[in-house]
């Protein structure tokens, strides 16, 4: 039986281009810059209908518009897989009521998160004939879809199902978030433009965004003042804790704007 699939028109194999899952967060922004220092990269953003995604899109657009993540970054590819028909309407990721500041990482689990991201991005990679897909999973990630065994199995399944060899890499799988901050600072990545927050001011309980279309990305050239460009953080969720602790552990000044500074040192 012929298991070959038809590729997109005018799409030759591009083994030299790496696809990078880009969320607008610290880890993926630094990963994008490091990958771009070694070769051409294709950033991919995948929407899933979560409460904080409009703020992520703002961060992604302004990060890429800054020109400070390398010169070999291709235009963003924006994809979507709406998970609002799977997660309950009152789920914290949909409602915008994230776990509190001191919540352990183990309790902040989105069922199938990496499965969804890698599956959609993997299909895109097959269509565009990209052979390497990277994501910013960190050391000590406690979730079942963040293990080397999972990534190997996912790459194998996608390669079989798409009749296209795909490698999934996690270059930071043995790296701490503090080390990522150090690397980002060394590379000159504008860390202040990144977003590590599950309830950014203006989203979630403060206003919901439901447009998952690729055209929903913001205009990065609107207000280019330093204050407007800086991603705003709630300062009260566990992602803000991870971010702030990483800056402290890295010995790098945290210039993040936190709406709630009760836990900021």
Task: Tell me about this structure.
The chain has 265 residues and is α/β, with parallel strands linked by helices. It has 8 helices and 7 strands; from the N terminus they run βαβαβααβαβααβαβ. The strands form 2 sheets. A 5-stranded parallel beta sheet has the order 3-2-1-4-5, with helices on both faces. Strands 6-7 form a two-stranded parallel ribbon. Strand 2 (41-47), helix 2 and strand 3 form a beta-alpha-beta unit. The termini are far apart. The relative contact order is 0.19. The model is unreliable at 1-10 and 204-227 (pLDDT under 50).
Q: Span from first to last CA?
A: 63 Å
Give the overall shape.
Answer: globular
* Overall pLDDT metric: 87
Strand order of the largest sheet: 3-2-1-4-5
Based on secondary structure, the structural category is: alpha/beta
Reconstruct the topology from this structure:
Layout (H helix, E strand, L loop, with lengths): L17 E4 L4 H11 L4 E7 L5 H13 L11 E4 L11 H4 L17 H16 L3 E3 L13 H15 L4 E3 L7 H11 L38 H4 L2 E2 L4 H13 L6 E2 L7
Parallel strand pairs: 1-2, 1-4, 2-3, 4-5, 6-7
Quick summary:
By secondary structure, the protein is of the alpha/beta class. It has helices spanning 26-36, 53-65, 92-95, 113-128, 148-162, 177-187, 226-229, 238-250, and strands at 18-21, 41-47, 77-80, 132-134, 167-169, 232-233, 257-258.
């Amino acid at each position: 039986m012929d298991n070959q699939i038809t590729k997109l028109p005018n799409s030759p194999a591009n083994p030299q281009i790496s696809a990078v899952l880009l969320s607008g967060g610290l880890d993926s922004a630094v990963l994008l810059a490091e990958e771009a220092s070694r070769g051409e990269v294709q950033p991919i953003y995948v929407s899933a209908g979560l409460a904080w995604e409009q703020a992520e899109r703002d961060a992604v657009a302004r990060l890429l518009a800054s020109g400070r993540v390398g010169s070999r970054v291709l235009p963003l590819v924006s994809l979507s897989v709406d998970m609002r028909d799977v997660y309950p309407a009152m789920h914290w990721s949909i409602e915008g009521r994230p776990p509190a500041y001191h919540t352990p990482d183990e309790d902040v689990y989105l069922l199938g998160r990496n499965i969804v991201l890698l599956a959609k991005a993997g299909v895109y990679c097959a269509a565009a004939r990209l052979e390497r897909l990277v994501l910013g999973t960190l050391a000590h990630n406690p979730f079942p879809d963040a293990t080397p065994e999972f990534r190997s199995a996912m790459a194998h399944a996608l390669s079989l199902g798409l009749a296209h060899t795909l490698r999934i890499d996690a270059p930071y799988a043995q790296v701490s978030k503090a080390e990522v901050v150090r690397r980002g600072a060394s590379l000159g990545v504008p860390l202040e433009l990144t977003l590590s927050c599950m309830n950014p001011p203006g989203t979630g309980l403060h206003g919901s965004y439901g447009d998952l279309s690729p055209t929903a990305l913001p205009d990065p050239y609107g207000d280019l003042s330093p204050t407007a460009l800086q991603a705003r953080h709630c300062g009260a969720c566990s992602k803000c804790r991870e971010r702030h602790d990483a800056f402290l552990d890295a010995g790098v000044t945290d210039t993040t704007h936190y709406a709630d500074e009760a836990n900021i040192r």
